[in-house]
Each structure stands twice: as C-alpha cells, then as structure tokens.
Amino acid sequence: MGKYQQKTIMIGGGILFGLLLILAQFKMIDLYVQSVIMFIGVNIIFATSLSIVNGYMGEFSVGHAGFMAVGAYVSSLLSVILFTVDKETGMSILPPSMSIYLFPIIIIVGGIAAGIAGLLVAIPSFKTRDDYLAIITIAVNFIIITALNNMDFVGGSRGYMGMKKVIYGMEGIFKFPYMLFWVITFAIFTVFLIRRFITSTFGKGIIAIKQDEVAAEIMSVDTNHMKLVAFMFSSGLAGISGGLFAHVIGYVNPGSFSILKSTEGLVMVYLAGMGSLSGSVISAILFTILLELLRPLQIFKWVLIPLILIIVMQFRPEGLMGDKELSDYFPKLKKFYKFK
Amino acid sequence: MSLLKITDLTQRFGGLTAVSNLQVDLEEGGLYGLIGPNGAGKTTIFNMVSGFYTPTEGVINFNGTKLNGKKPHSVTALGIGRTFQNIRLWHDMTVLDNIRLSQHYHLGYSVFEPFLRTKNYYKNEKRIEEKSMELLGVFDLQDIAHEFPKNLPYGIQRRVEIARALAAEPKLLLLDEPAAGLSSADVSDLIDHIRWIHDNFDITIWMIEHQMEVIMNLCQYIKVIDFGKTIAEGTPEEIQKNPQVIKAYLGDEGEMYA
C-alpha cells in the first residue's frame, strides 16, 4: 500500500464522510435513515469487537452484550451526572457546554469500564477451556442484566434516560449531527485499531492460539496473557459500542442487552466468517439493514434470522467470507487498503 | 559443562507411574538419543522438560535455572526448542508468519505499541522479519515463505517445523520423532539435515526416535527406557549389544520359544 493510495483513500473517505455530515446537517437525509446509519456504525463496532475473541482467537464468548451494557450504563451515567440538571443527581457538575469536547472521552471511559469488566471475567474463565468459556460468559451476561435490573439508581428494569438532554445541550450550542459524526468516527477507529492489532506479530499470537494452542505455547507465545489482552480489548470495544448505542437512542434498559443482543453479535460474526475483519464490517451492515427491512414481521424476524444462520452454516460453514478479506477476493483493493 | 541436568525425576498420573527416578545429564554440544518401546514414557519426559507437565518429584535444571513449574512459553524463552511427533504447524498461517511468531518472547515492544505503531514497533517488526527470512534462507525455504504449510509436502513441513523451533534461538533442541511418517529417501535427508543443524547452530540436540537408522547414525549417547525406567545407556555400539535392550524391543527369547 503506497503512500499515494493511502492519501487517496483518506481524502476519498473524508469527502464521503463530510458529504454525509453536510447532508445530515441540512436535513437532506431524514432522521430515520440517519438512525439506521448510526445503528450500522454501532453494530460494526459490536461485531468486529466480538470477532476478536470468537473469530480470530477461536474461543466462544456468548455474553458479549453484557460488556456492551457496562459501557452503555457507565457512559450514560457519566454524561447525565456531569452535564445535565437531574432531579436525582442534582445540578450538573461541569458546564453543559463542555460536553461537546468531553463526549468522546466519556464514551472511552465507558469502554475502559467494560474492558475492566472483561478482564474480571477473563481471569477465572481462561483457566478453563472451550465450552466453559461459553457457559461462563452466558452467566456473566445474566449477572450483569440482573444486577442492572435491581439497581434503583439506574432505573432498574424501567431503564435509564436523560442522555438525549446532553445531546440536545450540545446541539443547542451548535447545530451539528454529533451522534452521526461520533458513531462513524468510532467505527472507523475500531476497525483501524483491530487491524493494527491483528497485523502485528504480537496480535498474531491469538491466531496462533486458534490454530494450535499447544504449538503457540511451546513457540513462546504467552497464551494466557494473550487471551487476557484480547478479551479485554474486545470487551472494551463492545463497551464503546454500548455507550454510543445508549446516546443514539437516548434511553437504555437492561432488556436491550440481553442474550438476544449477544446472539445478534454471534449471528453477525458467524455470517461474516471467522477471522475476517472486512467480513464482519460487511455483515454488520447487511444485518442491520436486514433487521430494518424485516421490521414489519415484528417478532417473526427472529424466526427468519436464525434460519438464515442455519442455511449459511449448512452451505458455507466457514461463513460468507471464511478467513478471507475483501482484498483477497478483489486483489486490486490491496492498493488501497489491506485488512491484514 | 552440563546443560540439562535431571535428577530423580518421577511423574505419576493417578496410580500410574509414567516416569520413575530418571537421571539425565546432557553436556553442552552433544547429540543425544532417547529410545524405548511405545508407551515407555519418552514423550512424557519431553513434556516435563518443556513445561507441559510439572514433575511429581525431582528437579529439572537447565543451564542453572530450575524448570519445575515453569510455563512452556517461559521454558522456550530460556532456550529449549521443541518439535512434535505429529507436526504442529499453524496451517492457516504463512510459513513466514510461522517463523515470525516463534519470536513472540522477545518482540521488543510493549502491548500498546502495535496500536500506536511507534518507531520502536517498526524497528522490531523489521528485525523479526529479517531474522525470519534469514533463517528461511538458511533452510532453503525462502521460496515458500508465503505458502501455507497445509499445502506443502510432509518432508518440507518437517523442515519448516524444525526451522520454527530454531527461530527462538534455543540452546537445546528436543526433537520428538522427527522421522515419523517420512519416506526412506526423506529419512536420509533428515539425518544429514540434523547433523548439519547440530554443526552449524552450535546447539545441543536430544531426540526421540523409533527408526534405528536415525538414532544409530546421529547420536553419540543413547538412553533406553521402558515402563518409565532407564534400562540402558551408552554409545550406539553398546546399546546395540545390550541384552536388556534387545529383550525390551524383541521380547524375552525364553518366552518366545517356550
């Protein structure tokens, strides 16, 4: 990938992104389409983060939405307490105008909290292997949801809101599609970070674990350490997607991070192919659009979507892309961007 | 100077004693053999030395460091390389990546540097790649650097595996049945190859092998074990004549003709 092409893609991407923001700024794309684009962004972060553990490392984490919930609640609480006048938390601690600058930091703090939660889960669970990790992560998902349901200061099962006030506060100072901007920025940032991780000799250690853990250990890869790093990284990114999700909707309740949400993540990763970054991005886009198209079916879409998964597993067990990247199918793309 | 010194090593799995009271003393620069019938406990010994099992009793001392209880990756970092009886390459990774990953213990950069892509990161990645390519060149494998091991013939896979074990710059190389599954032409290649590695890499080699052609041609000193116990040791000539070894391999003559 030459310097010239790198510039081309950065400028091209920048123009597209700018155009999208301008269109949104002047209300030329309606709010529904905007929100679909934002959900695509959130799902890209969620799916690619899960693909680190389930795709690249070959372990089976099932409760990923639990970490999303941690990120969502931590960042929501922070932004509401810091920037809004609330009858429970009282006056805003910081002037609301600062939210414009501090918003990304709040999202990242949510991610760090989720990363720490991930570490706490990973330390005991990687002493066990394979199926046990799946069982433990399901349990953790339930623990987090039940805990949130019973915490009154975050609204219990009624959910927690007030994040919209923060966004309105930001928009009151300067009208701008903030959420659209941040969701897409974080999505790009996530893909960028994962790519950097997975292309380094350090990060390839987790691919070695997937392919042969015994060989990885004997070839000097500290498998335990790698697993902790990868799991923490993955759950941290899930936390970021949660924080963004909470601020896009302006409302969170424990129910939206149930095992069903985790399943959505699994569907996206397995649809994409294990260990394909561009695959996860594509399948997050397709899957979000599909969910929107199937909205008229209501709950029956949850008959159709698992059915798609079964069909894919029957005819293409390695997923749509396997461990191939988009640039493997279209070598010309390599000039512009390599996913590995 | 003694490189690996094992004293009174015993490994029990429940009621089964897989290895009992083993004494080993490997001098630096030697080429040693370990033989014995199937199930004698040879691979168990290797697994203890490389850190997969913690010995029930006894001490493994490598170059002045006690290995008991150390994890395999830190044993490798201390300087013990190993290959497996059934080839354990990462088959969906290029040959170059296979070699590259064996230097995971001295990457030279911290956890955060792959994300930040610091100068230090690029410098060390370049160093690792250059070293890997150099090693592949020495093994005449540079043409297949970007192939996947699963697509390579078995003999070549063996060579890649040995190259990978050497990438971690071991002082002691454990070869677990390197000739298993090779054709006779490949076996004679392997013998030359191991001798060449031994001469050129300034390394001590300890190998398990069933094919006597390999063991008798290469090893200076052989240890024979059966049912976890040492039954004989000595030079190839001594071993070939030892009645107990013949008995362990061919059975008791008295029983056979009774």
How many distinct helices of chain B? 11
Question: Helical percent range of chain A?
Answer: over 70%
Structural class call of chain A reads: mainly alpha
Helical fraction of chain B equals 25-40%
Number of helices of chain A: 14
Q: Low-confidence parts of chain A, pLDDT < 50 over ≥5 residues?
A: none
How large a portion of the residues of chain B is in β-strands, by DSSP E?
Answer: 15-25%
Distance between the termini of chain B: 49 Å
**Which structural class is indicated by helix and strand composition of chain B?**
alpha/beta
How many beta-strand segments of chain A? 2
Strand content of the residues of chain A, in percent?
under 5%
Bulk shape of chain A: globular
Low-confidence parts of chain B: none
Count of structural domains of chain B: 2
Round the mean pLDDT of chain A to the nearest integer and report it. 87
The largest sheet of chain B, given as strand count, sense and whether it forms a barrel, is: 6 strands, mixed
Sequence of secondary-structure elements of chain A: HHHHHEHHHHHEHHHH
Q: Give the total of beta strands of chain B.
A: 10
Oligomeric nature of the chains: heterodimer
Taking Cα atoms only, what radius of gyration of chain B do you get, to the nearest Å?
20 Å
Assigned CATH architecture of the largest domain in chain B: 3-Layer(aba) Sandwich
